[in-house]
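We were asked to recover a plausible sequence for a given structure. The inputs and outputs are reproduced exactly as logged, with field labels preserved.

PROBLEM: sequence recovery
POSITIONS: 251
GIVEN STRUCTURE:
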């Protein structure tokens, strides 16, 4: 035993067990943000009887806070994986986008809660800027990568990210108030359609094309890629018609 200890000491210190990889640390950090928003959502839900604007607060802590962060984080992860550029979704630019997004979300919620529209405006601009930067990054990623079978998934993500700033602008406009007639209801419906069916819905649709067969441990059906490419313009056209109907249709 003494000889073994002496030998290991002579050869240098014993190797340390490997720690978490940078990729694992990145995902732990960014997903902690989603968990924090979910925790806030749970707190608001528990105390909603005592909070003004509780329903609005519940919706936006969940969708603007937790869901929007999750969409940005995981669409970036899946895009980099599908395009075989796994290192692209980490680093200072990705962190800066998340910081901007969360600062904007906090400003929107805080501004609405305190009745300060300029704060809501700044927050909405930060959210829109962060998601627009995410969309630009996705497009650049597509141009960098070699052609892949499921690169159309990233096109869904880019289209979804391009829609959120429009939904955010409608939300900021509604927060301003002073809208006559049935315009607030029309803007609200368009806001919901764009954010739920566009931002969230297109992201989910694009992900399921590749993730669902993986979860079922089966091969992707023949023609799935072609069908996915053809479906995106149809979905965008339907979304545009729904928004137009909400804004311009008869009362």
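RECOVERED SEQUENCE:
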């Amino acid at each position: 035993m003494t000889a073994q200890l002496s030998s290991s000491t002579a050869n240098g210190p014993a190797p340390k067990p490997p720690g978490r990889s940078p990729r694992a640390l990145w995902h732990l950090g960014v997903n902690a943000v989603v968990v924090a928003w979910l925790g806030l959502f749970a707190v608001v839900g528990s105390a909603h009887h005592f909070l003004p604007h509780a329903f609005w607060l519940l919706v936006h802590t969940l969708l603007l806070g937790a869901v929007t962060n999750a969409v940005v984080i995981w669409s970036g992860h899946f895009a980099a994986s599908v395009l075989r550029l796994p290192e692209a979704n980490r680093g200072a630019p990705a962190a800066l986008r998340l910081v901007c997004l969360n600062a904007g979300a906090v400003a929107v919620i805080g501004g609405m809660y305190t009745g300060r529209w300029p704060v809501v405006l700044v927050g909405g601009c930060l959210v829109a800027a962060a998601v627009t930067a995410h969309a630009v990054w996705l497009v650049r990623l597509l141009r960098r990568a070699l052609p892949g079978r499921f690169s159309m998934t990233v096109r869904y993500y880019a289209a979804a990210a391009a829609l959120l700033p429009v939904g955010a602008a409608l939300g900021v406009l509604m927060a301003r108030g002073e809208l006559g007639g049935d315009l607030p209801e029309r803007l609200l419906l368009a806001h919901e359609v764009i954010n739920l069916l566009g931002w969230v819905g297109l992201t989910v649709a694009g992900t399921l094309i590749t993730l669902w067969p993986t979860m079922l441990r089966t091969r992707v059906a023949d023609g799935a890629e072609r069908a996915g490419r053809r479906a995106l313009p149809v979905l965008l056209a339907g979304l545009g018609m729904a928004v137009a109907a909400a804004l311009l249709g008869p009362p």
